[in-house]
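If your schedule permits, I should be very grateful for your opinion on a structural question. Kindly check, if you would, that the fold set down in the tokens agrees with what the sequence suggests. Thank you for your consideration; the sequence and its tokens are set out here:
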Amino acid sequence: MSHFVVVGAGQAGSSLVAKLREKGFDGQVTLIGDEAAPPYQRPPLSKAYLLGDMPRDRLFLRPEAYYAERDITLRTGAEVTGIDPNAKTLTVGGETIGYDQLALTTGSLPRRLPDAIGGALDGVHYVRTLADVDRMEPEFKAGRHVLIVGGGYIGLEAAAVAAKQGLTVTLVEMADRILQRVAAPETSAFFRDLHASHGVTICEGVGLTRLTGEGRVGGAELTDGTVLNVDFVIAGTGILPDTRLAEAAGLTCDNGIATDEQGRTSDANIWAAGDCASFPHNGGRLRLESVPNAIDMAECVALNMMGEAKTYVPEPWFWSDQYDVKLQIAGLNTGYDRVVIRHAGEDLSHWYFAGDKLLAVDAMNDARAFMVAKRLLAAGKSPDPMAVADPATELKTLLR
């Protein structure tokens, strides 16, 4: 009987084993995760869960009974320490397990603040795992001062939660503006104004020199000379693909675990999917950090592990919740040369074009613009930028 093993029990890993059983794979399936909890959603961690609006059990992607009912061996709190591709085995807590096909869905790791600048002090937190957020939650008390390092989506979402709970919030971003890596100046300006309206102090073009304190963080020195007293710190300076096992096993890595268009790594019996994997795209390599990509790529890999030889074609989309604003992003804005702003009543969206070609859309509380953009991008269609900008244009007419 064939044994398919999946290492990494997050969104991608859970989706992969579910798809194997859904499509009739009747061999042995093992899903291994190093966290104590069963597979769970990560996006609500820094939002609804941290705010207390979502109970712990609602985070779980599937009830634990789901895995047993489908004869999936779920091993939680189990660390894989090595893979031997030649022997087709992996080592888990001193035990050796054989596999016929192996999938790596190891996700990503937060960039950590260096110990040399105080990153190891108590009171310095990251938003990546359920345990991270459980450790952080007692810090959120009204009137305390939190320093957030990093003006990407993780940092901004954490700032929104802290502000809503009555904390004093200072956010520092070393780049010239928040969201510089992922969004246009127009979108950065929207969120800068949104946070300012909730009392958050945003310092752009300002980095962290060091954190200070005896054992626990109590202060911060910034690159512009500012000295702050702080009660705790949240670092949201980005993530890195978790390629540790893959590299040790000799697999090719290139901005993640390098796969072909089907999700197969440089070893014919090992696959990868989700945040940890990069795949061919438009003549280069692409790695997507999103829930939809984790699900879609993992499901594609499941089919290919069963022999379907299906090419993975991503349809990138993302979202972020901050205060009462839901940002929905369709497409990838890489290479844009202009942004068309559509402001129709309360609805606001930013449309990214390269020449006349539509690349992506940022929609702020504008679900219709997001859905129309997704359909246009999937069909390879580009609307007239003038029509997009005209608030009198009915969005659905752009699909014609």
The mean pLDDT is 96. DSSP finds ten helices and 26 strands in the chain. Residues 324-399 form a domain with the Enolase-like; domain 1 fold (CATH 3.30.390.30).
